[in-house]
């Protein structure tokens, strides 16, 4: 299998290149970033790189996600997007591209978080509606978006478990006088040091609490999960897929 990495000079790009080098059997046919760097084999020419590729793995910035997805669709290359903080334009581009290629957008490619997301969906469905749901996340001091894409995905799973949408139940930022509204899902954010990624989902009732969580200590988990997803995605029918499809666990809710 042949992959192109977009964001190849970044933290995740480097982690994916390292994982590729560890006997993955996957061939790197293009390393793309904003600025070319011949010494590291990095170019800015995505179109040329896609000509010989099976899958694009994009961990860059939301600014070019829509363009990159359209390029993948033109070249018949499957797209795995790990970039977070995506907006409506990227979502529309993903829908359009998925008519021609397999597309998987994952705010978190760790297998542990994929499992956590499904456990949260089940817990939200099983526990009574008077259990308050609060999500706390912590990341390194350089992270740009907040709450993290993973925290929002956990919030969506919890809302869906209750038959709702996150938009309908997401709590406003709490400052000053802001008592909890029944049924809302709240988010708290920590940005500090070199935290790789902590997520905790609290279900708090009267007299008992359930906490489900995940701590990432090594960026390599996202890289390994991304390569597993890329391998799974190559050659699939056009359409939208999720990490939960990759681990073969789909909750019936
Ligand atoms: P980073 O800043 O270290 O690297 C991003 C790289 O992308 C940089 O080299 C930058 O020059 C490049 N880039 C930015 N815009 C580009 C463009 N338009 N075209 C080509 N290259 C471009 O960031 P990072 O920590 O590697 O994270 C990258 C993205 O992946 C972020 O959105 C982050 O939130 C996300 N992320 C996702 C997961 C996951 O599991 N899905 C895990 C970690 C990080």
Explain what the structure shows.
The chain has 253 residues and is α/β, with parallel strands linked by helices. The protein has 2 domains: 2-105 and 219-247, NAD(P)-binding Rossmann-like Domain (Rossmann fold), CATH 3.40.50.720; 111-216, Dihydrodipicolinate Reductase, domain 2 (2-Layer Sandwich). The protein is 35% helix and 23% strand. It contains 9 helices and 11 strands. The strands form 2 sheets. It has a 7-stranded parallel β-sheet, sandwiched between helices. A hairpin with a 4-residue loop joins strand 9 (197-204) and strand 10. The longest helix is centred in the middle third of the chain and has 16 residues, at 111-126. It is elongated. The mean pLDDT is 95.
Topology:
Blueprint: E1 2-6, H1 11-21, E2 27-32, E3 42-43, H2 46-50, E4 55-58, H3 65-75, E5 78-81, H4 88-97, E6 102-105, H5 111-126, E7 132-139, H6 149-161, H7 166-169, E8 185-191, E9 197-204, E10 209-216, H8 220-233, E11 239-241, H9 243-246
Parallel strand pairs: 1-2, 1-4, 2-3, 4-5, 5-6, 6-11, 7-8
Antiparallel strand pairs: 7-9, 9-10
Helix pairs in contact: 1-8, 3-4, 5-6
The structure holds nicotinamide-adenine-dinucleotide (NAD).
Nicotinamide-adenine-dinucleotide is lined by residues 6-7, 9-13, 32-34, 59-61, 63-64, 82-85, 106-109, 222.
CATH architecture heading of the largest domain:
3-Layer(aba) Sandwich
Q: Portion of residues in helices?
A: 25-40%
Total count of domains = 2
Largest sheet, spatial ordering of strands: 3-2-1-4-5-6-11
Per the CATH scheme, the topology name of the largest domain is: Rossmann fold
Main β-sheet, in a few words? 7 strands, parallel
What is the residue-mean pLDDT, rounded to a whole number?
A: 95
